[in-house]
Design a protein that fits this description.
With about 475 residues, the chain is an alpha+beta fold. The protein folds into two domains: about 200 residues, Beta-Lactamase (2-Layer Sandwich); about 230 residues, Phosphatase 2c, domain 1 (4-Layer Sandwich). Helix content is about 45%, strand content about 20%. It is built from eleven helices and 16 strands. The strands form three sheets. A six-stranded antiparallel β-sheet has the order 3-2-1-6-5-4, with helices on both faces. A five-stranded antiparallel β-sheet has the order 7-16-15-12-13, covered by helices on one side. It is elongated and about 140 Å long.
């Protein structure tokens, strides 16, 4: 009987052992699956946290520096890295990768001085890395920047050719790096690293890094575009404010000056003008009348214009020789403006009681004088050098006062080259011939008529073509 039960009991025990073994393996499998599930949930949570932080940064219009730090910390957290670094392309020249955000435990990705790898050099090392840029080509950062996608470098000891001197303190780190770009626009490089003690990144971590770096690039590009738009709006606001200040500097109306009637206008080609005109009281009986054109356009020209205006007003008071005043201004301007800039200027001194005008022409377009008695237009071409070209020796030898009579009914025209160089849709210039014709036709009717005639003639000539240069006109009539 017992002998017949032995095989049965043996089979039962064997089945029980197999069942127990399967149960143990099942429990282990369940625990492993639970561990993997928790890891995946944790990874998913880190990714969602990263995306949420990036979105919050963009929504609340925080600083770019805050976004840079969020990208580096967020991607490092997602892939369980010990540190990360973000280098951005220098927007001015586009030749260097500039450190934008570095975590303290990030692997150094550039060549280091030997003393910074010694124990206790942590803060000094971080300061060095925060200030040291890298070329956009060559080296680990350059290769990453020019790559078509993320690179899983593994341990840096495998890449000694990317460093001039790969130090032991760097060689053990594990690194992944990705170029950040939107379309064809390259933004920079994002890298994450692990210490030798932590070991390498997995292939799965690299896939996650690829996706996270793409999100970081999108967020960075979006924020950069927003920042550029804000900077542009701010600059436009500043330019409008500067334009308003410049407009205030121009005379609001022509002064009363005995038998002289004056009409003037300034029409900038851009927000700011490099032209200006002014009326300067010299004493009770004399007034200075100036028209000027600074080489170039925009903000630099407007600054030079404002400087010239202030200097001339300061030097002209009580000085009845226009050339003498301009000589002083030229000496003061010469050392303070760029070598490629200069100012062409015509400066007249009017006498309330004497029908005569004294003119100094510092390289400016030649004024036109209409004589009622002869019904002729004369071009006034006294010699003179533009301001800012010479320190004084040549300017003072060449530039001279020129005096001419202004009889009753005569008219004087001062203008900048924006008048004769105005172009139509076919690229043809208004020219000196048309300028003479318009002036000769309108001068008998006085200063206001001359100004109105030029405004109409220029508008008819250019049609819808954009204004290419500042236009300033002054007409002086002797009653």
């Amino acid at each position: 009987m017992w002998s017949s039960l032995v095989p049965f009991l043996s089979g039962f025990l064997l089945a029980a052992l197999f069942a127990c073994a399967f149960r143990v393996r099942g429990l282990r499998l369940i625990r492993r699956l639970q561990t993997e599930r928790e890891a995946l949930l944790g990874e998913e949570s880190r990714i969602f946290t990263f995306l949420h932080e990036i979105g919050e940064n963009l929504t609340h219009d925080q600083s770019l520096r805050a976004l840079h730090d969020d990208i580096v910390r967020g991607v490092s957290r997602v892939v369980d890295a010990d540190g990360g670094a973000l280098y951005l392309l220098d927007p001015r020249q586009g030749l260097l990768l500039i450190p934008a955000s570095l975590m303290e435990r990030a692997a150094p990705l550039i060549d280091l001085p030997l003393h910074l790898t010694e124990p206790g050099a942590g803060k000094a090392l971080l300061s060095f890395l925060q200030m040291k840029s890298a070329p956009r080509s060559g080296g680990l950062l350059g290769q990453s920047f020019e790559a078509q996608g993320p690179i899983h470098f593994g341990q840096l000891s495998r890449w000694p050719n990317l460093f001039q001197n790969l130090l032991p303190a760097q060689a053990g780190h594990f690194v992944m790096a990705a170029p950040l770009s939107i379309g064809t626009r390259r933004l920079g490089v994002l890298a994450v690293s692990r210490t030798p003690e932590r070991g390498p990144f997995t292939d799965h971590a690299f896939d996650v890094f690829r996706a996270a770096s793409e999100q970081g690039a999108f967020a960075l590009a979006n924020a950069t575009i927003q920042q550029e738009a804000m900077d542009k709006r701010r600059m436009e606001d500043e330019l409008r404010s500067a334009s308003e200040v410049q407009r205030i500097l121009l005379p609001q109306s022509a002064p009363e000056m005995g038998d002289y009637l004056i009409a003037a206008s300034n029409l900038p080609a851009k927000v700011l003008s490099g032209d200006y005109y002014d009326f300067i009281p010299l004493d009770q009986d004399h007034m200075g009348l100036v028209i000027a054109d600074v080489s170039g356009k925009g903000f630099p020209a407007s600054l030079v214009m404002a400087t010239c205006r202030a200097l001339l007003r300061g030097q002209a008071a009580g000085e009845l020789s226009p050339t003498a005043a301009l000589c002083k201004v030229n000496r003061m301007l010469f050392g303070d403006i760029r070598e490629d800039m200069f100012i062409s200027l015509a400066y007249c001194v009017l006498d309330r009681h004497v029908p005569r005008i004294t003119l100094s022409r510092a390289g400016h377009d030649a004024p036109l004088h209409f004589s009622k008695r002869t019904n002729l237009v004369t071009t006034l071409k006294p010699p003179g050098l533009a301001l800012g070209i010479d320190g004084g020796r040549v300017f003072e030898r060449v530039t001279k006062d020129f005096t001419f009579d202004m009889e009753s009914g005569d008219c004087l025209l001062l203008y900048t080259d924006g008048v004769n160089e105005a172009v139509d849709a076919d690229g043809e210039e208004f020219g000196l011939a048309r300028l003479h014709h318009v002036f000769h036709s309108a001068a008998p009717s006085g200063a206001d008529a001359v100004l109105a005639a030029f405004q109409q003639a220029l508008a008819d000539f250019v049609g819808g073509s954009p204004q290419s240069d500042d236009i300033t006109i002054i007409a002086v009539e002797r009653r």
